[in-house]
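Re: the request from the purification team.
They wanted to know what the chain is likely to look like in 3D before they choose a buffer screen. I agreed to run a prediction and write the result into the notebook, where they can find it.
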Amino acid sequence: MTEWLGGMRTTADRLYETDLIGRVVFLANRSTNQSISSGIDSTSNAIQWDAIDLDVLGGWEVGQPTRWTAPRAGWWTFQGAVGFNSSTGGTSRECSWWVNGGLISMGRAHPINNAISSGALTVDARSVPRLMAVGDYVELVASQNSGSALDTATGSYRPYISITFSGPA
């Protein structure tokens, strides 16, 4: 999108992009358990979204359920969390933002990093603004170190992702 300049004509495309600023364009969650490997911080543990509540711009595809792909260039804000089922093993539960297959700067929050108590545990990802080009994709990657695979939680603890269009590039 080009910036609005004096003398520019109002077009449907310009009005539509202006209308998107500040709007949640993608909201999804994981309604069933997903197994998260112990000790691995990689896209193999990216959350596979199976309940799509909102996809205004069509950035999610069933064939690549971990990814949301930017259909237009601009600033996007990511929010999300991962809920883990009960396990007292290990000392860390975490989730982080990965873009185009790599961990991004500012993409990691401080993990839960001490004795883990029994009970479901939700870890929030940082709320991160990110400049994305058309075709860039984002994933929310979970990690934990319980010593064995640990499932994500369901119900009110389930993982979620929310993406907001924050403005043009």
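For the purification team: The longest helix spans residues 12-20.
Please add any questions underneath this entry.
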